[in-house]
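User: Design a sequence. Structure:
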């Protein structure tokens, strides 16, 4: 109530609050509605006061629900004219996170009792849910360029060093690296192509190249088993025909190339998970555990079309793809690693 009242007294407080909390963070429905309508007025460039706010609430048939104009007027009672709301915002956010934790605990508990999924799936969902909540804590907000440079660059020479080389993780493809400067942390890269074009081969080459650099890679293969994926990687690295290998038609020289490639990748930090039908939550949970134990530099998922939706009941495929893409972008940001997500396009252009 103090936050809402402060905004009515001084509209400048809205930006201070909105940068750290949202309407859903308020526990009472009346407070959520008022804060949301305040935001709409601010977005329209209008002043927020009792009259304009009451009009906005009335337009949405919410004025009587929150208690009328008298209740709006009571928000400013007892508040000093010069008010700092930083501590109030922190309290509201803190209580909101605790309520979300309770809600997610109850939801995960229901999943465990229901037993519709395996224990691993339920635990993965719990890990992902709590990590999402942890990511909503109040942060420092905007950072000045001066603060960033002082924190990120130990000396001016480092700036020139970075401009002369890749700033992210190299893919092994020079043309691609020139365009992207390497795969950057917190970024989601979609690798899309029609069926049987070579998406998995490209992703496998990238994964092996990064792992050979000593960087830890997690490869989630939802389409093919680990053996088939490793065969593809070794044939690509040894420049051996995959079909000839599958049918046992390799000559002695080709066998040596294949074995040499196998020896090169056997000790690199490349981890493969070939469990089908995984969700973004289960992938994030496994990647987070690998990050905690061995570190993590790159995540590859093959491919989007075989991932299961987090929420049941999404019948529209476009909604499912959008939800999965958002979840994978969130994974990249929370784990602070680049994520490569393969996607199959239509077989024919129409």
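Assistant: Done.
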């Amino acid at each position: 109530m103090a936050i809402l009242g402060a905004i009515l007294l001084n509209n400048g407080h809205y930006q201070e609050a909105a940068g750290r909390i949202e309407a859903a963070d308020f526990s009472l429905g009346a407070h959520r509605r008022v804060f949301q309508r305040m935001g709409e007025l601010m977005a329209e460039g209008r002043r927020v006061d009792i009259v304009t706010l009451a009009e906005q609430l009335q337009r949405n048939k919410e004025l009587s629900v929150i208690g009328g104009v008298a209740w709006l007027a009571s928000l400013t009672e007892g508040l000093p004219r010069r008010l700092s709301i930083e501590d109030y915002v922190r309290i509201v956010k803190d209580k909101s996170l605790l309520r979300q934790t309770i809600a997610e605990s109850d939801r995960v508990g229901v999943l465990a009792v229901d037993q519709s999924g395996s224990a691993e799936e339920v635990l993965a969902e719990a890990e992902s849910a709590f990590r999402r909540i942890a990511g909503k804590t109040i942060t420092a907000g905007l950072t000045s360029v001066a603060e960033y440079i002082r924190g990120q660059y130990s000396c001016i020479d480092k700036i020139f060093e970075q401009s002369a080389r890749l700033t992210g993780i190299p893919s092994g493809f020079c043309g691609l690296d020139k365009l992207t400067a390497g795969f950057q942390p917190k970024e989601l890269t979609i690798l899309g192509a029609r069926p049987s074009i070579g998406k998995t081969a490209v992703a496998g080459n990238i994964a092996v190249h990064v792992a050979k650099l000593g960087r830890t890679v997690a490869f989630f293969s939802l389409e093919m088993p680990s053996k088939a994926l490793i065969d593809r990687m070794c044939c690509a690295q040894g420049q051996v025909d995959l079909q000839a290998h599958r049918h046992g038609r390799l000559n002695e020289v080709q066998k040596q190339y294949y074995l040499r490639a196998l020896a090169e990748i056997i000790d690199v930090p490349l981890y493969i998970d070939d469990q089908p039908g995984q969700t973004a939550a289960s992938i994030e949970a496994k990647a987070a555990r690998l990050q905690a134990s061995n570190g993590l530099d790159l995540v590859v998922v093959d491919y989007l079309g075989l991932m299961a939706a987090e929420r049941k009941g999404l019948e529209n495929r476009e909604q499912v793809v959008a939800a999965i893409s958002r979840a994978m972008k969130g994974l990249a940001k929370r784990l602070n690693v680049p994520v490569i997500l393969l996607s199959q396009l239509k077989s024919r252009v129409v």
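The two ends are 56 Å apart (CA to CA). Residues 86-114 form the longest helix (29 residues).
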